[in-house]
Amino acid sequence: MLQPISCNGYNIYFNENGYKKIREYLDEKNHSKVFILTDENTHQYCLSRFMSNMPEDFTAEVIEIEAGEIHKNIETCSQVWQVLSDMGADRKSVMINLGGGVVTDLGGFVASTFMRGIDFVNVPTSLLAMVDASVGGKTGVDLGPLKNQVGVINVPDILIVDTDMLQTLPPEQMRSGLAEMLKHGLIYDKNYWAEFLDLASLNLDDLDTLVRDSIVIKNNIVMQDPREAGLRKTLNFGHTLGHAIESYFLQNPEKPALLHGEAIAIGMILETYLSVELEQFPQEKLDQVTSVILSYFRKTEIKEEDIEPIISYLKYDKKNSHGNINFVLLNDIGTPVIDVRADNEKILRSFAYYKGQEV
Hints:
CATH class of the largest domain: Mainly Alpha
Radius of gyration: 20 Å
Number of helices: 14
GO molecular function: 3-dehydroquinate synthase activity; metal ion binding; nucleotide binding
Organism: Sinomicrobium pectinilyticum
Strand order of the largest sheet: 1-2-9-6-5-3-4
GO cellular component, one term: cytoplasm
Domain 3-dehydroquinate synthase N-terminal: 63-175
Number of domains: 2
Structural class: alpha/beta
EC number: 4.2.3.4
CATH topology of the largest domain: Dehydroquinate synthase-like, alpha domain
Order of helices and strands: EEHEHHEHEHEHEEEHHHHHHHEEH
């Protein structure tokens, strides 16, 4: 049995033990009403599994939102707030967010602000949500194409990771979560990174352990720096350029849809290249990082005319201060460096490096 993880203000429980704990929690709290927030995919593929693990007399109102990052906005929040109000939610209600990172981010924000805050529980159903969005209490929504510009830091009462939910995911969604797991190895633990050098040899039990280990890494970082004053910034490795690429592709319908993890995978290659230029990261390790990432993620075409508008998105990155764009780079695998500045010329060279990779 995977052991629970104690976080700042809540616990993460796994699989069957998780359902046991959520049943105990709901019994003890005796909420006035229970709401379950899903998107159309998790409603179809995950809700019945969740309900089958609840008591026979368990009842809940299900609120469904449209799936996808494009719907992670204040308009969707307004709709959910209105539904809660129309259905008689009060301050003693609870919202169970059953879904990927969009559902848990948006649902946590909606619950934290409805009537100045009601209880919420997260049940992440995607690999990305389990290893990334599940830890740290970041909730919020996008502002137009700008990622996570509006939100609050607030933790759920309890969080359940049911790894069987991963069987409902298409391969590209599994890869999207894998990007964050690779990141955790690169910024924190070279031994964890080494586990991914031959993923083909791993079985489902190994995946369970890797998921838990990834959550532990993120939680260790967050526990030491809950308000992102220093160390927690390292979790943004690959995200400065990755978020800019994600935002740019989101705004351009003629571009292929990029999942979060796919954009972060590109960002990690670009920022590892910058690490060679600015932090003496070893060239042979850049080659290894690039090779590993491109063995899991298809190479995305980024044209010359795309690069300048992508760079223009960097000014919205939340790590910036006093007008400076700050990167998280690597001195070595497991040894990150925060608040590094890179000029546009070096950023352009990083794109040229990515473009030149053979697949």
